[in-house]
Amino acid sequence: MSTDIPDVSKVSIGILGGTGDQGKGLARRFALAGHTVLIGSRSAERAQAVAESVGGSVRGADNATVAAEADVVIVAIPWDGHRSTLESLRSELAGKIVVDCVNPLGFDKQGAYALPVEEGSAAQQAAAVLPDSRVVAAFHHVSAVLLLDPEVAEITLDVLVAGDDREATDTVQALAARIPGVRGVYAGRLRNAHQVEALTANLISINRRYKAHAGLRVTDI
Amino acid sequence: MSTDIPDVSKVSIGILGGTGDQGKGLARRFALAGHTVLIGSRSAERAQAVAESVGGSVRGADNATVAAEADVVIVAIPWDGHRSTLESLRSELAGKIVVDCVNPLGFDKQGAYALPVEEGSAAQQAAAVLPDSRVVAAFHHVSAVLLLDPEVAEITLDVLVAGDDREATDTVQALAARIPGVRGVYAGRLRNAHQVEALTANLISINRRYKAHAGLRVTDI
Questions:
Q1: What number is the ipTM of this complex?
Q2: Is B128 on the interface with A (CB under 8 A)?
Q3: This prediction's pTM
């Protein structure tokens, strides 16, 4: 694998929906890596409380403030409300790299399954709603449990990064690699984001069968 | 990972569309593992010629003969013609484990992309067309180049196995493990086969970017 990745050590990271487990876990790992991290929520108070619980230099604010202040913004909000939340932040997110890690999944007694998405995927919906942002799909398969576990120093998996803007995907690959054990792997254009999102349903099945926190490694790179 | 897998060493394997690179590569590896392997094609002559080129104990015949004779049948035919070929073999395939490894993909100058499938996936189409067969999705991500390369003794990757019939998925997992280096990993129900098929488009993008023959390993199992 090429190691020609940009220096992202000074990039500040905002996490919309950072009060959920996935967002909180990513906030924790990026703070440990030395990044300025802003947790966003609909409620600034709730964001501040979660930021304090994560500790380090993590701060909390309402989603709009976080979207406006951070260099790179990770979207970790629930699928229900994805479109409307992003629509409300269009101007704050203009010109920025927006990293969508949302998995549109349904659940029933047989487990998880991929929901149909009109635009093709959550990431493509973000790109449609945010025409002035640089949308990248990434961080779908990172277990929140592992991200939040203080006993886990390294997370051995690859973050699949999909997008149409080379500089943006390079940046997000480099950000993924700030988490010890993680590689950021370019995995194609945004039109191929759906299956990356949907594969989370398979990982949930794998977790159930094998009592694991499964992730993926790409072989031969 | 559990090692409680059935003994499949005596299972004979038929490969419909076994004259393509993927089918031929699988035929070669299963023959090396000691299986009776039958390569199927629309033309028996072509199947016989390819079987001879693969060598070992591999035999060739028309698809209907292969479907009738083999214990387990792998579907490695082109997506174009998938439905009609399977429809024509419904009675031969009744009662059998049918392993669909077909990736419905389109290609343009930006690379590969997933095609929409009315039934959800190639595997679900197979299940719809073959109501009396036990359809399993597997072997989507194994590089034909590696399968066919005599210098490659081990292929380090996981075959994701999706299906609704536990005995059938167990059998296919065990068959995958007959190829040195490969693990067969249960990856959910058939309704979650689409993203496994479609992810082949991402692997093609990865191969292009990293000059690789990429596959996947599931971590933490």
A1: 0.96
A2: no
A3: 0.96
